[in-house]
């Protein structure tokens, strides 16, 4: 009776295993994003939620695996009881059927072992049959993959997350093999025509003796999982092939700069490399690890003849990379670097909006560095395609040193806008969320200075966190009939706040201000 509880989750598992690999095929998503460039922004935004979708599918796989496993454990227990004659005569008769070519019989109950103790039969079956053994392997692999994907492990021990996630190869291999054990069996079509189960179920003693009830014949159903997963597996193999080809392409260092707050800037060059604003690349340094790839948003503009990334010390891999770069002689080329990408993100759409709000937290400012640089070039070249007429930029940092590497870019933007008489085009606000008493005293002494004591910019630094209600209300008043794109690269907690504010301050009248929320996802 637990068979439907095993079979239904198995069907759901097949469907979800078909989907699980597709959201992590980065090149496929970039291709789709480019194809949807003229579609609605809602369609493109769904592609930016690929990792969220990946996680939801994984949760469903975990849930269905649990239900499927429990149901089959109950089935095995009841199969064993039937074998011992615990239930009615029908279940006993069906369980006694064996594969015997001489008697022309086939088995229905998969527990065919008779030479061990009855209590040991279920355990023996689980660890010796194809279905049982692959089921154990699949379940163990899934448990390791899911537990190592927890936020605390992924953030603190990325290598553990990375290596255990590659157990998916074992998971899929076991999944394809799992069904060929033919544990779930059914009456053959020919036997069903000759042996009517509704007529013969209460006449087990007459099976094979009367023409109406010949001995029923059974067969295993075909393995179906590979029907579902073969397509995504081929797509994923092509994805890995493309990544390998990109990895083999030569990458040269243009410049290596160590910025304040232990931030490493790498300026790289690669043949035929083309990017757009806000895009990201995956970097691999074989000197640290042959297998690990880490995502970094590019801080350069498409108009530049190189691409750059800013890397903050945030784990073992980044610490090792920074340590290697610091030990290099001045002007030397760094270690071999593999580059995969570029890949599209929500920030690519920033110039599709008349008004944009850019919110960065800490190193999360990197995609907006690319955007602001590109704007500078567009104004310099008098680009007629630039639709954006107003940008609001917010940067939240815990420490003063974090502002230093980005302040030069903002100074250049300030001067450029003033020279062109467009001082109102860019409104930026920097928020310092952490400071000590010495810093507070220094600010109080220099409060009358024309430029900010932290950044040297004309716009003074704000202390504490932004009042988002006030900021959104101000943007709405200044742009009463505009579509405003709100872009965030920062923590999930801030994303929830901004998403709610976008909904709160969007007018129901389509002719008035409308806010659209976009978030970077890695």
TrEMBL record:
UniProt cross-references to CDD domains, sorted A to Z: NOX_Duox_like_FAD_NADP
Keyword Transmembrane helix set for record: yes
Keywords: Membrane, Oxidoreductase, Transmembrane, Transmembrane helix
Pfam families: FAD_binding_8 (PF08022), Ferric_reduct (PF01794), NAD_binding_6 (PF08030)
Parts of the chain that traverse the membrane: 12-32, 53-74, 125-148, 160-184
Annotated localization: Membrane
Membrane-topology annotation of the record: Multi-pass membrane protein
Residue stretches making up the FAD-binding FR-type domain: 243-349
InterPro entries reported in the protein's UniProt record: Cyt_b245_heavy_chain, FAD-bd_8, FAD-bd_FR_type, Fe3_Rdtase_TM_dom, Fe_red_NAD-bd_6, FNR_nucleotide-bd, RBOH/FRE, Riboflavin_synthase-like_b-brl
Chief location category: membrane
Recorded catalytic activity of this chain's protein: NADPH + 2 O2 = 2 superoxide + NADP(+) + H(+)
Protein name: FAD-binding FR-type domain-containing protein
């Amino acid at each position: 009776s637990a068979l439907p509880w095993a079979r239904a989750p198995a069907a759901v598992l097949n469907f979800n295993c078909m989907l699980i690999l597709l959201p992590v095929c980065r090149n496929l998503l970039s291709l789709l994003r480019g194809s949807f460039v003229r579609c609605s922004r809602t369609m493109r935004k769904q592609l930016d939620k690929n990792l969220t979708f990946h996680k939801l599918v994984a949760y469903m796989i975990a849930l269905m695996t649990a239900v499927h496993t429990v149901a089959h454990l109950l089935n095995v227990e009841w199969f064993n009881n039937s074998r011992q004659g615990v239930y009615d005569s029908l279940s006993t008769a069906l369980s006694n059927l064996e594969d015997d070519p001489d008697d022309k019989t086939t088995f229905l109950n998969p527990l065919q072992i008779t030479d061990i103790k009855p209590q040991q039969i279920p355990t023996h079956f689980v660890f010796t049959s194809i279905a049982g053994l692959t089921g154990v392997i699949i379940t163990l692999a899934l448990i390791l993959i899911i537990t190592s994907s927890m936020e605390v492990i992924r953030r603190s021990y990325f290598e553990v997350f990375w290596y255990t996630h590659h157990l998916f190869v074992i998971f899929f291999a076991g999944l394809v093999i799992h069904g060929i054990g033919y544990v779930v069996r059914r009456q053959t079509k020919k036997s069903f025509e000759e042996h009517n189960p509704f007529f013969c179920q209460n006449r087990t003693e007459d099976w094979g003796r009367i023409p109406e009830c010949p001995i029923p014949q059974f067969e295993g159903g075909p393995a179906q999982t590979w029907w579902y997963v073969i397509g995504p597996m081929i797509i994923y193999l092509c994805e890995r092939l493309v990544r390998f080809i990109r990895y083999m392409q030569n990458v040269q260092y243009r410049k290596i700069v160590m910025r304040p707050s232990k931030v490493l800037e790498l300026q790289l060059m690669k043949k035929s490399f083309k990017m757009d604003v806000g895009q990201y690349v995956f970097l691999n340094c074989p000197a640290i690890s042959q297998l690990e790839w880490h995502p970094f948003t590019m801080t350069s503009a498409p108009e530049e003849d190189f691409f750059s990334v800013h890397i903050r010390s945030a784990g073992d891999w980044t610490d090792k990379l920074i340590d290697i770069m610091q030990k290099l002689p001045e002007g030397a080329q760094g270690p071999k670097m593999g580059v995969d990408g570029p890949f599209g993100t929500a920030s690519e759409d920033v110039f599709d909006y008349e008004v944009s709000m850019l919110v960065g937290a800490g190193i999360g400012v990197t995609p907006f560095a690319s955007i602001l640089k590109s704007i500078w070039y567009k104004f310099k070249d008098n680009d007629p395609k630039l639709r954006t007429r107003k940008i609001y930029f917010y940067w939240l940092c815990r420490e003063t040193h974090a502002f230093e590497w980005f302040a030069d870019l903002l100074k250049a933007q300030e001067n450029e806008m003033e020279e062109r008489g467009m001082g109102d085009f860019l409104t930026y606000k920097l928020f310092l969320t952490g400071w000590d008493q010495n810093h507070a005293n220094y600010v109080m002494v220099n409060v009358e200075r024309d430029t900010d004591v932290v950044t040297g910019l004309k716009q003074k630094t704000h202390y504490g966190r932004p009042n988002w209600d006030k900021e959104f209300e101000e943007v709405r008043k200044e742009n009463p009939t505009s579509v405003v794109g709100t872009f965030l690269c920062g923590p999930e907690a801030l994303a929830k706040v901004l998403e709610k504010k976008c909904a709160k301050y969007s007018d129901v009248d389509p002719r008035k201000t409308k806010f659209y929320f976009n978030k970077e996802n890695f």
